[in-house]
Amino acid sequence: MDPYRVGRGIQICRRTFMLKSLSGQFALYAAGLFLLVGIGVGSWTLASYQTYGEEVEQRLHRGLAAHMVYDNKQLKQGTIDASILKDAFHTMMLLGPDWEIYALDTTGRLLAYSAPPGKVLRQRISLQPIHSFFAGADFPLYGDDPRSATSQRIFSAAPIENAEGELTGYLYVIIGGEQWQTLADMLATSRVLQDSWRLMGAALLFGLVLLVLLFVLLTRPLTKLVRRFEHFTQHDFSRRNEPEVRHHRWTPAEVVSLNQGFDVMAGHIEHQLEQIKTTEQLRRELISHVSHDFRTPLASLQGYLETWLLQSAEQRQPQLIEVALKNARQLNLLVEQLFELVRLEGGDIRFNPEPVVVAELAYDVVQRLQLMAEARGVRLRVETDIHQQQALADIGKLERILVNLIDNALRHTPAGGEVIIKIAAANDAIYVAVADNGCGINEAEVPLIFDPHYRASNSVNGEGANTGLGLAIVQQLVALHGSEIAVQSSQQQGSTFGFSLPLAS
Question: Does residue 482 register a pLDDT over 50?
Fold first, then answer.
C-alpha cells in the first residue's frame, strides 16, 4: 500500500469532516460573510472617500468660474465669442490642465469650449445644477459632463453679464477634467487609503478568528455529546465505561438539557433492551417448558394407544382409552391456555365490561366445580354478605379468573381442606378473593408464580399436574379490569389470591 496515498486519504477525510462539522461549516460561512462585509465596507469607504474628495475639491474651486469671468475682458463685458475665447480658454487651462471650460448661453447651449470638437458629445446641458450652485446647495453638486452622454461631474459656474447687468450666459467649468482619478488610482496613490485597507483587513481577520474560537468553545459541549452518542452506539447501546460528564456553570442551558435528554433516552433504551433480552430469555424458557408439557401427555397418549392396539380385540381394556382421552384433554387444555396467553399479552382480545352480580357468578362457578372438589375431598363454598351488589366487569373473563384460581387452590389443598370464595364491599369497589388452607407458597417464590415458565417448589406432579399457565392468564385478565392481583401466603397454612373490581354505576 502506498503510504503517500494513505496520508492523502486521511487529509481528505479530515477536510471532509471539517466541512461537515458544525464548527467547520460555521468557519466557512463566517469567512464568506466577513469577506462580503469587507468588500462592502471597502467599497463604501472608497466611494465615501471619493465623494468627500470631490466635495473638498468643489469647495476649494467654488469661485473658480467667477475669477475666470473677472480676469477675462470679453467675459467681463458679457461678450461670448468662440474665436476670441478659444485662446483665452487655452491660457486658462495652463493654470489647470484638468479643467474643462465651457461658455453657455442663457438656455444651456454650448457657445465656446476648451475641448477639441470631437470630444464634446452634448451641445446643451441642464441649467438646474447651475441654479442650485448659485442658490448655495450642499456639495458635492454634480452637473452634466459635455464629454459624456450620461455622466455628471463636479463643477464651478458663474454668470456672464453685460455692462447693463443683463445676463448673457454662463461660464461652466468642469473640475478635474478627463484625467480624473478612478478608485483604483486613488487606492494605488493614497497612503491613507492603503493604511485604512490594511487596518480594516487586519480587524476583519482578527474578528473572524476570534468569532471562530468562540464558536468552537461554545460547540465543544455539543462535540462531547456527539462522542457520547458514538460511545453509546459502539458499545451496544450501553453507557458502561462512559467518561463522566461534568457541566460547568457557564455551560449553555440548552446543552445541559440535551445531555439530560440523552440520559433519559439512553436509560429508556437500556431498559427496553433489558426487557427485550429478558422477554427473549423467558420466551425460550417458556417454549422449553411448554414443549416438555406437550411431550408428557403426547408420549402418554401415544403409549396407551399403542398398548391398546397391541392387545387382541378380546383383551383390549377400555381403561387405556380413558387414560389416553384424559391426556388428549390435558393436551387440548394446554394448547387453549397457550393461545389465550399469547392473545392476552399481544392485546388481541376484546374486553366488554358490563354490570355483573359477582356473588351469583361465584355460586355458579362453585356449582360447576363442586364435583372436582368432592373428588379431591375438599370443601368448596362462597362467603359473602353482598348478594346483589354489581361490579363492572367482563363476565366471561371474570368467570375465567375464578375458575383458574379455584382450580389452582384445589390442586394445592389436601383432602379435608377448604377453599373459600370471599366477596366483600371495599370502599367504591368489590373485593374478590379465593382462599385455601393448603400447602402455601414459599415467600421468596411469591413474586415469580405469575411467570408462565415458572414452576414453584409446591407444584403438583402426576395426575393433578397443571400447565403452569393458569396464574399468568389470571394476572392478564385482572389487569384488563384495571386491577392487580395480590397474594398472601404462608407455608402449610394456605394462600389467598385477591383483587378488586369497580362498582357498577
Answer: yes
Structural element, H or E, at residue 405: helix 395-411
Distance CA 208, CA 28 (A): 10
Sheet holding 152-161, edge to edge: 110-113, 100-104, 167-174, 152-161, 142-144
pLDDT for 483 equals 92
pLDDT of residue 199: 80
pLDDT tens digit string along 237-293?
Answer: 777 777 777 766 767 777 778 788 888 888 888 888 877 777 677 666 666 666 656
Q: How large is the angle between the packed helices 253-310 and 318-346, nearest 10 degrees?
A: 170
Question: Over the stretch 169-215, which tens digit does the pLDDT of each residue have?
Answer: 999 999 874 444 455 455 556 676 677 777 877 887 887 788 777 77
Task: Give mean pLDDT, residues 462-487.
Answer: 78
Whole-number Å distance between alpha carbons of 472 and 283: 14
Cα–Cα distance between 119 and 134 in angstroms, integer?
28
498 class by beta-carbon count within 10 Å (0-12 exposed, 13-18 middle, 19+ buried): buried
* Strands in 240-386 per DSSP E: 354-357, 379-384
Cα–Cα nearest to 493, from 414, 436, 416: 436
Residue with cell 467518561: 243
Amino acid of residue 471: L
Query: How remote is the C-alpha of 335 from its chain's centroid?
Result: 47
Cell 396464574 belongs to 471
Q: List beta partners, residue 502.
A: 429
**379-384 vs 142-144, strand pairing mode:** unpaired
Residue length of the chain: 505
Question: What gap in Å lies between CA 457 and CA 436, rounded to an integer?
Answer: 17
